[in-house]
């Protein structure tokens, strides 16, 4: 089967997330379909949710309404696509388009551009993390902090970081290097556009961010990256320089055990370009 993969980036959707019904499948979003084209969620975001619903909801049995979370509105998403001949379009998708169920289904059925993988990047600020005992990492002793530095990427527990997650690839394509493509694309974006993670806020937004980021000890991103990895896929993340933080222990997310893994990126010389956090309806 002839295939060619490529990746699209979806910028944060902000308040447009209100058009998405977390209790309905991604291809059944009438509120979003009825919205003006400029104000509607970009198709790339819907495609990311299509992949996540297939992998996390159908395959891993995560509750549909729990798949969308509070970080999705402010995250950058990447979606990998495969270009397939029209004759390979699944009968199920073709039937949805023929029956005219919704615009999203018709858009998929009329195109050979099929979403097959996704990943997201959540920028700072983040709430304080907890270690295996349930204590905030910002409340640990000096000795415990030294243990953390010895067991993972050395960093101040209060340092600003970005978080990668929701890595998902449709089962049929898991040996095609899609995970590698998505991870490297997201990390490259972070390295080349790191100034977007150290925004200049207006006073009110800056103060709100300080409160979320441990009273604003720092909002300056210096290359620290966190992954909440499923325990069974730690080896994938290790290939990209991530190290498991044993002090964070293991925890259950939707019935699946996770661990924290860190990586320090070299982001080179700091850029001075400002990036204002807001909610531009026209963002791609």
UniProtKB/TrEMBL annotation:
CDD domains: NAT_SF. Transmembrane segments: none annotated. PROSITE patterns: GNAT. Residues 133-143 have a biased composition (Polar residues). Residues 55-266 form the N-acetyltransferase domain. Residues 145-156 have a biased composition (Basic and acidic residues). SUPFAM superfamilies: Acyl-CoA N-acyltransferases (Nat). Gene3D superfamilies: 3.40.630.30. Residues 116-156 are annotated as: Disordered. One of its GO terms (molecular function) is acyltransferase activity, transferring groups other than amino-acyl groups. This is N-acetyltransferase domain-containing protein. It comes from Recurvomyces mirabilis.
